[in-house]
Design a protein that fits this description.
By secondary structure, the chain is mainly alpha-helical. It is 55% helix and 5% strand. A hairpin with a 4-residue loop joins β1 and β2. α6 packs antiparallel against α8, α6 packs across α10 and α13 runs antiparallel to α14.
Length: 285
């Protein structure tokens, strides 16, 4: 258990998260009482402690701490469901919904800077495939707009690398920088003079989808990442290319994203092979 505490201390996790993970591991340590932490014992601990927690967040902390401790091996709690409502799957918006979000970002109540931040979030997620946490962690020094890229620090896979962006995302970032007020922080997204936190970002996103008239569509920022994958496929990108741009470690994960592509789009794949033959085949899909 000591090794994972040291690993947490050297990670980019928030201090509160590290403390919560260590608390969960100490509880597991007490339950094991010197025994080897086999999958069966960890599941028993979960059944007797984690599943009986009154707080849904506490259950998730226990599961996340165990997953981090066993990484890269699969967690003993794989397949165990946290009590409560099932999470909403991330779905890509339709072309019409995406257009509504772009219009709403320019009409959002508040300052020009707030509207520029909303537009940048939409464009960077939809034209760069960035995750919500990656967007929040961006700093001004991470941007290399002349070369059309930005530097991602400690992504989900604990890697740091350059990520290329499509022109719409670059233009949106330029507009955001132009509207950005002076602040003590170097963070790209700012709220009340400090780096924008998760709660502030979620509030901004909720306001955006409400103004767009999509409050009932249950769309998420991560759904724009799925939209990014779909647009790459529709424009002719190969599966390895899409996987690289999404920074997936496995092509199987990328395939999950692409299952949302509508079947009529398969005709476009045929059109790239033989336009005349594909015209006759469109009725098959």
């Amino acid at each position: 258990m000591d090794s994972i505490r040291q690993r947490f201390a050297s990670s980019d996790l928030a201090p509160a998260t590290i403390a919560a993970y260590c608390w969960a591991l100490r509880d597991l340590e007490r339950f094991l009482d010197g025994r080897i932490a086999s999958d069966e014992l960890v599941r028993t601990w979960w059944a007797e402690h984690g599943r009986s927690d009154a707080c849904l967040g506490t259950q998730r902390v226990r599961a996340a701490a165990v997953s981090a401790y066993w990484r890269p091996r699969a967690s003993p709690l794989r397949g165990m469901r946290v009590r409560g409502r099932a999470s909403v799957p991330h779905t890509a918006p339709s072309a019409e919904q995406f257009g509504q979000m772009l219009v709403a970002s320019a009409r959002l109540p508040g300052s020009e800077h707030r509207r520029a931040q909303a537009g940048a979030i939409v464009h960077v997620a939809a034209y760069g495939g960035l995750r919500q946490g990656e967007i929040r962690s961006l700093e001004l020094d991470d941007l290399d707009l002349p070369r059309g890229r930005l530097w991602l620090r400690q992504t989900k896979g604990r890697r740091s690398e350059w990520q290329p962006l499509a022109p719409p995302a670059l233009r949106s970032l330029q507009q955001l920088i132009a509207e950005r007020p002076a602040a003590a922080t170097q963070a790209l997204l700012v709220h009340r003079g400090r780096r924008m936190g998760r709660a502030a970002l979620n509030t901004l996103w909720s306001d955006l989808v409400r103004v767009a008239g999509l409050a009932d569509a249950r769309l998420s920022i991560h759904g724009l990442r799925h939209w990014f994958a779909g647009e790459l496929l529709r424009t002719g990108a190969t599966l390895p290319e899409i996987s690289t741009l999404l920074r997936h470690r496995s092509l199987r994960v990328t395939e999950v994203y692409l299952r949302q592509i509508e079947r009529p789009d398969l005709a476009h794949a045929l059109a790239r092979m033989d336009p005349e033959a594909a015209a006759d085949a469109r009725g098959l899909f």
